Amino acid sequence: MADLTEDAVSKYLRDNPEFLAKWLSQNSLPDTGQCATKGNKEDGGETLLSGISNFSQIVKNSITGSIFKSYLQGERSRKVSVKKDRSSLIHMSESELFMELIRDIASELDVNVLCHKIIQNVSILTDSDRGSLFLCRGTKENRFLVSKLFDVTDTSTLEESIHTEENEIKVPFGKGIAGHVALTKETINIQDAYKDPRFNQEVDAKTGYRTHSILCMPIINFEGEVIGVAQIINKINGNHVFSQADEEVFQKYLTFCGIGITNAQLFEMSVQEFTRNQLLLHLARGVFEEQTNLNKLIEKIMLDAQEMLKCERCTIYLLEDSLENLWKEQKDSHKFTKQFMERLAKYPQKSLVMAMQDPSNSTGPNPQESEPERKHEYAKLEDVSFSMAFDFFAKDNGTIKEPSPLQLAKSKNTEIAKSVVVKGTTMNIPDLEMDGRFGSEPFIEEDGFHTRSVLSIPINNSDKKIIGVTQLINKKNGKPFNENDENIIEAFSIFTGLGIHNCQMYENACRLMAKQSVALEVLSYHATAQTEEAAKLLKDPLPSAGDLRLYSFDFDDIPLPDDGTLKAVIRMFTDADVINTFKIPVEVMCRWICSVKKNYRPVTYHNWRHAFNVCQTMFTMLYTGELRPVFEDLEVFAMMVACLCHDLDHRGTNNAFQVKVASPLAMLYSTSVLEHHHFDHCIMILNSEGNNIFQSLSPTEYRNAIKTLEHAILSTDLALYFKKRGDFKTLIENGEKKFDEPYKKDLLKAMMMTACDVAAITKPWEVQQQIAQLVANEFFEQGDLEKTQLGEKPMPMMDRDKKDELPKMQVGFIDAICLPVYKLFADMNPKLEPLYGGCLQNRTHWDNMDKAAKEQAKELEKPKVEAQPQENNKSEVEEKRKVIKPEDEDVNRTNVHNTKTNLPTHSPNGIINQSTKSQITDHHHHSKSQHSSSKAHASKMALDDHTPCKIQNGSHSRKQKSGFCVIT
């Protein structure tokens, strides 16, 4: 066999196209087809090879990403029919020709190209001279035909035959030959067109063409609905009349054409939907990228709107009160949030006053402010007022103008926008002059712009409240806006509303931030100590640590005046050598100490005195307890600062109370509410001018100091203490002494903070009793609030009615919290044993009180043996009651609880605004001052042998015969 050459193979394939089509369909080699297609394109023409190869690629009814992309970009080639030369098809049988022409349209997804092929192929099948194809449009109530292709011959190109939207012919259903076929679904075969009254002879008169015979047939989809009408004209052979056989071939071919047109239309719709979605996504990106400038955002929105709907003019109106209402809502959002109102719905309104009342407002908030703002409703056009508008004119190269209020008032289009606001619905007016609702005169603006058709839609914010109107005017093609345009602009309007609302919120947030900055500056000035206070402290002589007994676990702050506590703090920082080590200016240290003291509220217990005592205990544990070698200098510095700041701005109520009333603090922090607030307040003071004691630290040292500071303050939450105590116990039992690993050292710091925080329980009994009185008063105040304001029964430790059970609960508190941690420290280092010993001694005292109280209760429950006839004589029980009953009903005493977390055997910790407390618990006036002097915090105590607890100024010594003091 002779060697095959490329030219020989090419010649064979050209002469035998049926073989190539059969071979490709059997082997299905898409790559080969692609290569063949590419080769033909390079030659500048397309033959049967390219058509068949493309068909073989798509024969499996799949749309690849590349094909879809080519349609989107408009790059897909428009192929003409398979054969334009009728003579070349003569050798084909009827079935082969039929399948060849079906194959020619099977892979076509462009509606226009498909319709052109259909008419050309039908002309080939029926030997007709030319044909036309109409597609159905309109709604069910108003359907009509449009001439997509008119007078197509087997040699005419698509561009020559296609009708654009501007020159297409509209034929109502039932009118003319094509309209009759569309309405009745009948086939019409006319031998002489001029004898049929339905034929319009004006077309021949204009074109000079003589129409003889007509065959017109409907194109039906799979649901039996008419989707188009095909019409062929003038049989070119024989008697020029279409036969019954022509009708049958025509009908068979149109059956496949119906499927192809339906698929092409669906694909065209998917392309349109994809394009629309891309535009909406582009708009969404623009909306959420541009949040800082309303004008820039509006410009993006209008450009996108004009791009989508191809209109001559686009206008956006913003309602006058939208900005004002948004500002008011934003301004009040920090005070009455939705979450806050929902969580307080079950409480009386007084609880809202208690939790959120402005301390400077003694009369409480205005009830009208707490009511949700009603959505504004517009009853008539006069009620609507636009604050601003933005006009986009396509003819001016996208120029955007802002009409003046006077121009808005005179504009006729503004009246339409106001009507949309009043009705709250979309308004699509195809012809303004014919509509008549806004007058029959031409809508011509002062600038000469003529408004013919308008599509207006309201802009809603996230609350579905109207904040403006989008108005599109005059489509560029001269047609009115249709239903598809309405759907697009409605989706568009959603993003527009969100974007405008968010941008307005951002601008309002900027204003709020500016106000906040001013407020913080003012607060910083008043919250921090003045230089004069620091200068005075700096000049005063500094006593020694020995004179102040700062190294003693039995330290008592009560004899010290307030300025004495400030000097004691300076002495502790001086002896710890942090002032010298970290180069802290003494005047900065003095001012910071005064500022910290100033930022403690005058609550009963969690005040400056408590913070000072916690710091002194930390100082003693480090130096007397010999824990100082474990820590770096910076850690010692940060831990002492943490002790002084660990209860900053305490409000006298605990975490549970803050969460219960959904206070702003509880909304800021999800866990350890107060502890996080104390830390943030500490940072605020450090950032205030003249108060940064960390100013000389390097960036690394500063980060480490803040990290230690935060860890130490948060560790005072007893909920965290319970989680960590087991790990600490394991370390101590394993003989840990060095704590040289970061985790172990952090654990030691946390346990030390707890030990210092509850150290009042380790003080001598005389001191401990006085502190117990202060703690009890603060807890009872919170319990009273829960009963009177929240309508709830407080836990026993907070309940004034349960005061007789407090010694027992105090013992439980010591056993659950205090003794375990002090026992671990005593086991770790014998130098820390005084903490454990003091706690154990106080437990004995509280236990004795509990036992005595139980015995006393039994005596009171015994029945009288004999009634006393004399009125002047009182029974023994009455005498005992007299002893127990306090002379001053306002003075109440209880066990010591120096803790913050809500536990079953001790008191929870919390916050309450002092001014609010003074308004709703004025009967607790005795507990507002700090325990700075012994007289102010001394309390009368009745003992069972009529021997009172004597309190001497300065020494605070007490005499008691039985060791039992009933607290009331």
Q: How would you describe the overall organization of this protein?
A:
The protein is an alpha+beta fold and 968 residues long. It has three domains: 109-271, 2-Layer Sandwich (Beta-Lactamase); 291-362 and 376-509, GAF domain (Beta-Lactamase, 2-Layer Sandwich), CATH 3.30.450.40; 602-858 and 879-968, Catalytic domain of cyclic nucleotide phosphodiesterase 4b2b (Orthogonal Bundle), CATH 1.10.1300. Helix content is 52%, strand content 10%. It has a six-stranded antiparallel beta sheet, with helices on both faces. The longest helix has 46 residues, at 244-289. The chain is elongated, with a radius of gyration of 46 Å. The termini are far apart.
What are the main properties of this structure?
alpha+beta, Beta-Lactamase, 6-stranded antiparallel sheet, GAF-like_dom_sf, metal ion binding, hydrolase, metal-binding
Which helices and strands appear, and what pairs or packs with what?
Blueprint: H1 6-15, H2 17-27, H3 30-42, H4 48-58, H5 65-72, H6 94-106, H7 111-126, E1 128-138, E2 143-152, H8 158-161, E3 170-172, H9 176-184, E4 188-190, H10 202-207, E5 214-220, E6 226-235, H11 244-289, H12 294-309, E7 311-319, H13 320-332, H14 338-343, H15 349-356, H16 367-370, E8 386-393, E9 399-401, H17 405-410, H18 412-423, E10 427-429, H19 432-435, E11 443-444, E12 450-451, E13 454-460, E14 466-475, H20 483-527, H21 531-539, H22 545-548, H23 562-575, H24 578-581, H25 586-598, H26 608-623, H27 633-645, E15 653-654, H28 655-660, H29 664-668, H30 673-686, H31 699-714, H32 718-733, H33 742-757, H34 765-788, H35 806-828, H36 833-861, H37 876-884, H38 914-920, H39 934-937, E16 942-943, E17 965-966
